[in-house]
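Dear Dr. H.,

I hope your travels went smoothly. While you were away I took the liberty of generating a structure for the chain from your last submission, since the lab meeting agenda had it listed for discussion. I wanted you to have the full record in hand beforehand rather than looking at slides cold. The sequence, exactly as received, is reproduced here:
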Amino acid sequence: MGNMDVKRKTSMKALTIGLLAILFFAACSGNHDYSPKPRGYYRIVFPKKEYRPYISNYPFTFLYPTYAVIELDKKKGQPKKLLNMQDLLNMQFPQFNGTLHLSYETITSKKVFDELVEDARKFAFKHTVKATSIDEGIIKYPDRKVYGIYYAIDGNAASSVQFYLTDSVHSYLRGALYFNSQPRLDSIQPVLNFVKKDVDVMIKSFRWKH
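The corresponding predicted structure, in token form, is as follows:
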């Protein structure tokens, strides 16, 4: 019995010491306040804004930045001398991993024109789920017969800028700006503001050839 009491007392002592040690370390760790580090982003170096004219077989021209590349969408195959009813162009911004998608179509009737305008509105407002607001601005340059609507989409939407330009009779061009990354406005806002200025220059310098 004596040996049993000794073993029992030893076990209880060890258990007590273990519990005290756990409580001690828990108390010590509780004295430190830990907070998550703020998300860090890479420093962005913006190039100098310089522009050049876009010249092609298409019935329009405009100015675009020297640090952008315009190419026919690869899904449409190789460039052709004759235009399709719909051609897709990509204005690539390699430094910012972004693309301004441009789609050109010829207007063959009033019905087609109305459908194109309605499609532009639908494409813009399909981002309503993620957008905090969508503002419409009228584009109007009567001396150049350039008309359209500019959609400014705020929030974490996949596309922040969309627009269309038309002469209301023969030609129609729609644009949509996308970045090839998860849409987080807080991370892309500086780049978005920078590229938006390029889109503004493009629209303000846009001219039909006919």
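Two observations you may find useful: The chain has three helices and ten strands. The two ends are 112 Å apart (CA to CA).

With kind regards,
E. W.
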